[in-house]
Design goal:
There is one protein chain. The chain is α/β, with parallel strands linked by helices. 47% of the residues lie in helices and 11% in strands. It folds into 2 domains: 101-254, Four Helix Bundle (Hemerythrin (Met), subunit A) (Up-down Bundle); 264-390 and 397-452, P-loop containing nucleotide triphosphate hydrolases (Rossmann fold, 3-Layer(aba) Sandwich). A 6-stranded mixed beta sheet has the order 7-8-6-9-10-11, with helices on both faces. Helix 11 (359-373) links the parallel strand 9 and strand 10. Residues 1-26 are annotated as: Disordered. Keywords: GTP-binding, Nucleotide-binding.
Length: 462
């Protein structure tokens, strides 16, 4: 039984048989939109439910029992709303997460795919019970060609379906794909693999159909052999795209995972200023340390464990003094980390110029990065201070900003020498304080996001 309300219906569950009361029963409440709205208002439910119902929600679950003289309506918690015509709810939001690269499926080399398909297809027997030799042979040929086609195409379909779509990735991971492979290359490889799958399906279905129409055993055998040859040729012609996919999978899986929920210290600065040396003394990361620029050609990760808390440290490629649109992809990796991950910045300066970059150029780069990402928690470090101490004060001119920067560095910067173990203890203490503050920021941001998500999912929101 259904009771009409506002043009929609509620499922009415009959109550068990009961004896009529001595007093006349109360008349049932009017099933009108006004009455329903008043009823919802008295139960302190969120506003907007009735308007949502009017727009086409077919089921509504509330809490409590509403009794009439002859029936009861069960009203549970609002657990779901089923929009008409299968439309997706605007309240469903997608929350981007990192780590998609570690879920990429293993890709078999093209040679292994073909050999496995050949072996399995040859073991496919004809359907039992076929006495006629010609019919049995054409049945076996058609089944084996179909099996060969599927054994090749099914892995290809798995790859195209399970490799993440770029639009679904975290912005940081999207940047890594673009900077590592170039604009559009990732999508082109996935599309080529899918095109190869379609080609295999087309050739396989065509030759399986021809084989199934054979009139003699010999004809069926010849068509089976021809079908195998055509399928293998089609696969050999396009198997290079699988090799490209293998390389993509290996590269992406080898990229370090940065957990945005764990405080991360990002070392930034010009090339060869000593970032990698600081990562080695601060964390478990063991980046290559050499005396030439751009030793770090990717994002390198390490971890710090302090007071039973785990933090992340990332070493980034050095930044040259030039506009962002002139930077190479190695430098853009650093900007991707700064732009898309909730990190704290440890900016490294080499005022001794032992790095090969002049102090004036380092100052320009520093000012640019500081202005762009100054909202991040920040710590400045002057590295190679043992070399700097050898310079006399007469060598410095502090008449302008660059001169003052050359002499003193940024305000409140820590002077460190890895070789002489100068300032290392102070640096570790400051880093711990910085990452602790970063953890508080992350927790506050998480609470804010959860609050926003709760508000957005509340019934009656428009």
């Amino acid at each position: 039984m259904r009771a009409a309300a506002g043009g929609r219906g509620f499922l009415l569950h009959p109550r068990p048989p009961w004896r009529a009361p001595a007093t006349p029963p109360c008349p049932p409440p009017p099933a009108t939109a006004t009455a329903l709205a008043r009823r919802l208002h008295h139960r302190r439910l969120p506003e907007g439910i009735l308007s949502t119902l009017e727009r086409g929600v077919s089921t509504l679950h509330l809490r409590r029992w509403v009794h009439s003289a002859t029936c009861g309506v069960t009203l549970h918690d609002i657990s779901q709303a089923e929009p008409v015509n299968g439309a997706k709810s605007d309240l469903v939001q997608k929350h981007e997460k990192v780590g998609a690269f570690q879920r990429i499926p293993m890709v078999m080399p093209a040679t292994d795919i073909l050999m496995s398909a050949q072996r399995k297809s040859r073991n496919v027997p004809p359907t039992k019970g076929i006495a006629n030799i010609a019919k049995r042979e054409r049945n076996k040929g058609a089944k084996q060609l179909d099996a060969l086609m599927k054994e090749i195409s099914v892995p290809l379909r798995t790859y195209t379906e399970n490799f993440p779509k770029r639009r679904d990735l975290h912005p940081y991971e999207r940047s890594l794909i673009e900077l590592t492979f170039g604009e559009g290359y990732y999508e082109k490889v996935i599309a080529r693999v899918d095109a190869l799958r379609k080609k295999i399906n087309s050739v396989g279905k065509q030759h399986a159909s021809v084989c199934a129409k054979s009139l003699t055993k010999r004809e069926a055998e010849e068509r089976l052999s021809e079908g195998r040859k055509k399928l293998e040729e089609a696969f050999e012609h396009g198997k290079w795209v699988i090799d490209d996919l293998v390389n993509i999978a290996k590269t992406l899986r080898s990229m370090p995972v940065v957990d945005p929920h764990i405080p991360t210290l990002c070392l930034v600065g010009s090339p060869n200023v000593g970032k990698s040396s600081l990562v080695r003394i601060l964390s478990s990361g063991k980046p290559e340390v050499c005396s030439y620029p751009f030793t770090t050609r990717g994002i390198l990760m390490g971890h710090i464990v302090s007071n039973h808390e785990r933090f992340q440290v990332t070493d980034t490629p050095g930044l040259l003094t030039r506009d962002d649109d002139e930077r190479n992809n190695i430098e853009k990796l650093t900007l991707a980390v700064l732009s898309h991950l909730p990190i704290a910045v440890l900016y490294v300066h080499d005022l001794s110029e032992d790095c090969g970059t002049s102090v004036a150029d380092q100052y320009i780069t520093y000012k640019h990065i500081k202005e762009r990402f100054g909202d991040r928690l920040w710590l400045d470090v002057i590295s190679k201070s043992d070399l700097l101490d050898k310079k006399t004060s007469s060598e410095f001119d502090d008449a302008d900003d660059v001169g003052r920067y050359r002499r003193f560095g940024p305000e409140c910067a820590i002077r460190v020498s890895v070789q002489g173990q100068v300032g290392v203890k102070e640096l570790k203490e400051k880093v711990h304080q910085l990452l602790t503050s970063q953890m508080s920021r992350i927790k506050a941001g998480t609470i804010y996001q959860e609050t926003q998500r709760t508000d957005d999912n509340a019934p009656g929101q428009t």
